[in-house]
Amino acid sequence: MDDHTSPDCGNFVRPQTGLLGGDPMEVINTLEVKYAQKFYGPFQAVKDINLTVEKGEIYALLGHNGAGKSTLIKMILGLVKASAGMIEIEGLNYDAKNKEIKKRVGYLPERMNFYDNLTAWETISFYAKLKGITRKRCEEVLEQVGLREAEHRRVGTFSKGMQQRLGLAQAIIHKPDLLVLDEPTTGLDPIGILELKAMIRNWNKEGTTILFSSHNLNDVEELAQRIGIMNRGEMIAQGSLAELQDRLGLPTKIKIDLAVIPVDLEEILVGKRIKTFQLEGKTVSIDCPKDKKTQVITAVMDGMLKVLDLRLEEPGLNSIYQNIMAE
């Protein structure tokens, strides 16, 4: 262990559970990270990270460049050894079960490099032989990622998006328990991104647990069941979108389209205890606490205002991310 690390947490002891003790059987999560640290000389790239990814979950890592996401991912994959802490996949750790773990994990790096002179079929067959996979499975994965018609083309002629699809094929060919994707939409066009999201959802429905990092907040908001936000090597927030919204107490925006704007609109709204609002054309926008929105809606629907339409806009991940990073 480096001189700069804190005391090694590698001897973290799990609670003893089981039938003989009378406790319920312990649920083994797909991924457990406890107090993980990584030093490069005096520089600490990862600081006491605690992270749990449950079986069947889609979990996303967010953070600026240099936040420590890629280092953490490499530690999870066993490509970089942690300076301290514990990392387990399916209840196994790399010190004892390195090969067994790697059979259970699929990985798509941000940049995937292939031999230009090999065809897609030759490339995926190479990975299949390494992992003891059948020819039929090669056909299946090329079909899944949309490369079956191009399987006999040389990879050197592929676009960046097609190479990304081939990278996905090698990552899922052995049907991993945990699929790790580092910036998976890189190089994909809008249609390719939509198709990738559909693939991720389908793999997840089939039982694959997915951990991915992305700079695209829309992708994360659409796909992830839970989100971890990193900054300067630390995990500064974790939870579902709703949990992160509640943590920040961000207001719900209520937008009301009116048929007519009464001259005494401000007086009417103040009478309903709505003191702050914005008016744009015939649309009134009101920010209110999440637990007060029913009261506000009831107040404006009592007949004094001619309401044409009403919309609720909960704070999205973009607002959440900006507010958390500013804390």
Automatic annotation (TrEMBL):
Keyword list, A-Z = ATP-binding, Nucleotide-binding, Transport
Q: Mention any Pfam family matching this sequence.
A: ABC_tran
State the SMART domains in the record: AAA
Gene Ontology terms for molecular function: ATP binding; ATP hydrolysis activity
Mind telling me which InterPro entries this protein's record contains?
AAA+_ATPase (IPR003593), ABC_transporter-like_ATP-bd (IPR003439), ABC_transporter-like_CS (IPR017871), P-loop_NTPase (IPR027417)
Q: Tell me if ATP-binding is a UniProt keyword of this record.
A: yes
Q: Which residues form the ABC transporter domain?
A: 28-257
SUPFAM superfamilies to which the protein is assigned, alphabetical: P-loop containing nucleoside triphosphate hydrolases
- Is this entry keyworded Nucleotide-binding? yes
> Which family does the similarity line name?
Belongs to the ABC transporter superfamily.
**UniProt-recorded name of the protein:** ABC transporter domain-containing protein
Q: Per the UniProt entry, what species is this protein from, by scientific name? A: Desulfitobacterium hafniense (strain Y51)
